[in-house]
Amino acid sequence: MLTLLLLALLNGVCIGLCRILNGRLGQASDAYYASLWNHGVGFIFLSLLLVSMPTPPIAVLLDAPLYAWLGGVVGAVFVVLNTLVILRLGATLCSLLVISGQLLSGVLFDLVVKAVNPLQLLGVIIIFAGVLAFRRMEAKSVERQEFELEQRETKH
């Protein structure tokens, strides 16, 4: 179980790093080309990795429901949206909002599929409160910096 928890944590680190790298790539071009390159390089990497692995029968893949094939589209939208917002919001706020969206959609999915534990709902509420507190703190910091800049300019 510890291995799975560590792998999930590593996955979170990879997502955060991917956001920052794609944001930088998007800054050099635009969000759509950054997404295209992200997926192209990822495709090449996975293709090279899969060469050494056994291939599942195509029938197994074709048995998946039609909606399951939309994961790539959702992934591409995620990369584009993230690339558009990360440089404007900053890595921390962007990550908090993405995690909040993941938690919210996870709870909503669990509501449809199975019962939701009240502690899960409390956890989501706490995360949203944290996002709001972070945003408020960030706004006050910007206001303070602007005030200090005005004070310096009036002294000169």
UniProtKB/TrEMBL annotation:
Protein name listed in UniProt: EamA domain-containing protein
Organism: Shewanella loihica (strain ATCC BAA-1088 / PV-4)
Entry's Gene Ontology cellular component terms: plasma membrane
Keyword annotations of the record: Membrane, Transmembrane, Transmembrane helix
Pfam families in the record: DMT_YdcZ
TM region(s), chain numbering: 32-54, 66-99, 111-134
InterPro entries: YdcZ (IPR006750)
